[in-house]
Amino acid sequence: MTLLDVSDGFDVHDYRTKLKLVKQDRGTMYLENRESCRCPACERPFDRLFVSEKRDVTFNSAPNGPICLVRTDDQLLVLTH
Asked: Pfam family example for this protein (predicted)?
């Protein structure tokens, strides 16, 4: 299982065969974990990944189960388990 490396930011292209793009708009991406990649915060496999370059983000519903937040210099990553 691959641990997402965010030590120098997060580049989705480094994981293009492991993550499936579900939705993308200006400044945000929503991805599905296809290959049991591991979370950079807790090192457990995650289900979904939300990546945002926006300063503010509002979620309309809360995910079921634990979530992890990881901050890079340019992005916020929200991982649901």
From this structure: DUF7385
**What is the C-alpha separation between 56 and 21, in angstroms, rounded?**
21
What is the reported pTM? 0.89
Full 3-state SS string of the chain:
CCECCCECECCHHHHCCCEEEEEEECCEEEEEECCCCECCCCCCECCEEEEECCCCCCCCCCCCCCEEEEECCCCEEEEEC
Q: 48 forms bridges with which residues in the sheet?
A: 32, 80
> Tens-of-pLDDT digits for all 81 residues of the chain?
899 999 999 999 999 999 999 999 999 999 999 999 999 999 999 999 999 999 888 888 777 778 999 999 999 999 999
